């Protein structure tokens, strides 16, 4: 059997989606969470998994965790072993990854993690896989390797030439779309523009309607400053850019709120008053998310031409090699990618 391009016009509804799972930074906990997830029965009931990563690293991880799994190499467009107990691995590196220090950011492992992502994107674009699920990269390491991106989100947007895309993270009762991602707090006021906030609201609307099937989602738009700026007393971003963006979205029929004090908005969303929230910056949305659901949240890039989900955690260098990394978020990311892929297959065949 070959890793053939899937036929978009004749989808096989019975077949589980084929998902490429990128290893992330080999010096982080990516290999461990992938290996643990591969050993669980759940994963194979959801999808046909293909690990895109370093073969020797995966073999070492299986050994150190004392798991009865066998890593089987897969070359481009080649046979794919799918039985329980085997892990199909596509290693795209020209030479096997050499020795490296686990738990340390380095150019070599950073470069490897970028190669895994690029390979997965190519396979998804060719239709050989139905979507990609990414294990964590280390942003410092990819930058040491000369890949000057703040994260997967922006790299994937460029690789796929997405017109409009952005980061959404879902977990527990919260679905949060981010206007900015990895930026310094001191640069935030200059980076928050009406255009970017409108885009965040549009992407939240897209995800909530198309992926979650909510016909008229209620979207809470977070303010930036304490008490939503208190009429200019604590900042003018609300009046200058956030309110105009919210009003522009409202004029298009989107049920977006005016800017709301962020300290109470997330609690309201958690109780179901909002279907999703647009957060102005990383920690504004990620602190509530990770407080209520760390380990089960899923990061989703909305607006890409390919399916991409990811874990809610990073490379966790402090626990590498200890055998205690939790694969929960990876399993949730696989479930969501498979659900989206199945939905698209059904839509194509109906
Ligand atoms: N999806 C991604 O690629 C992604 C996501 C988040 C962070 N990162 C990157 O990871 C690196 C480290 O970031 P960080 O230290 O802020 O966050 P982190 O998530 O790596 O670690 C934060 C804390 O959570 C713990 N932790 C994380 N994942 C865990 C798991 N699966 N099981 C048990 N404990 C876990 C760690 O041990 C650590 O104490 C950075 O380079 C960051 O940019 C990547
Ligand atoms: N902000 C995310 C988190 O903290 O979980 C993560 O760093 C996302 O990064 P990517 O753009 O690499 O998905």
From TrEMBL:
The protein's required cofactors: a divalent metal cation
Low complexity composition-biased segments: 1-11
Binding-site residues for a divalent metal cation, renumbered to this chain: 182, 227, 282
InterPro entries given in the database record: PdxA, PdxA_fam
Pathway: Cofactor biosynthesis; pyridoxine 5'-phosphate biosynthesis; pyridoxine 5'-phosphate from D-erythrose 4-phosphate: step 4/5
Biological process according to GO: pyridoxal phosphate biosynthetic process; pyridoxine biosynthetic process
Keywords: Cytoplasm, Metal-binding, NAD, NADP, Oxidoreductase, Pyridoxine biosynthesis
Note in the entry: The active site is located at the dimer interface.
The family this protein is said to belong to: Belongs to the PdxA family.
Name under which the protein is recorded: 4-hydroxythreonine-4-phosphate dehydrogenase
């Amino acid at each position: 059997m070959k890793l053939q391009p899937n036929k978009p016009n004749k989808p096989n509804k019975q077949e589980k989606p084929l998902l490429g799972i990128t290893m992330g930074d080999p010096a982080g906990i990516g290999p461990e969470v992938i290996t643990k997830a591969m050993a669980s029965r759940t994963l194979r009931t959801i999808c046909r998994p293909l690990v895109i990563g370093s073969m020797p690293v995966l073999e070492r991880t299986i050994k150190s965790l004392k798991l009865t799994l066998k890593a089987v190499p897969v070359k481009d467009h080649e046979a794919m072993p799918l039985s329980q107990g085997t892990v199909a691995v596509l290693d795209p590196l020209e030479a096997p990854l050499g020795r490296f220090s686990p738990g340390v950011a380095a150019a070599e492992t950073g470069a490897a993690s970028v190669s895994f992502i690029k390979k997965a994107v190519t396979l998804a674009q060719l239709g050989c896989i139905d979507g990609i699920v990414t294990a964590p990269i280390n942003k410092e390491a990819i930058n040491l390797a000369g890949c000057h991106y703040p994260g997967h989100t922006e790299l994937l947007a460029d690789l796929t030439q997405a017109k409009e895309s952005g980061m959404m993270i879902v977990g527990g009762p919260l679905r949060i779309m981010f206007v900015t991602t990895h930026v310094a707090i001191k640069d935030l006021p200059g980076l928050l523009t009406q255009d970017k906030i409108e885009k965040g609201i549009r992407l939240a609307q897209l995800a909530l309607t198309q992926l979650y099937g909510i016909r008229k989602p209620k979207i809470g738009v977070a303010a930036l400053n304490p008490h939503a700026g208190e009429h200019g007393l604590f900042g003018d971003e609300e009046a200058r850019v956030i309110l105009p963006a919210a009003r522009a979205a409202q004029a298009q029929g989107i049920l977006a709120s005016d800017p709301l004090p962020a300290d109470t908005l997330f609690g309201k969303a958690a109780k179901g008053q909002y279907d999703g929230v647009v957060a102005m910056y990383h920690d504004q949305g990620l602190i509530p998310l990770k407080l209520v659901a760390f380990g089960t949240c899923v990061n989703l890039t909305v607006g890409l031409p390919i399916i991409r989900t990811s874990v809610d955690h990073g490379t966790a260098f402090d626990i590498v090699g200890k055998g205690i990394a939790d694969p929960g978020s990876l399993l949730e990311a696989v479930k969501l990618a498979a659900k989206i892929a199945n939905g698209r297959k059904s839509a194509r065949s109906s």
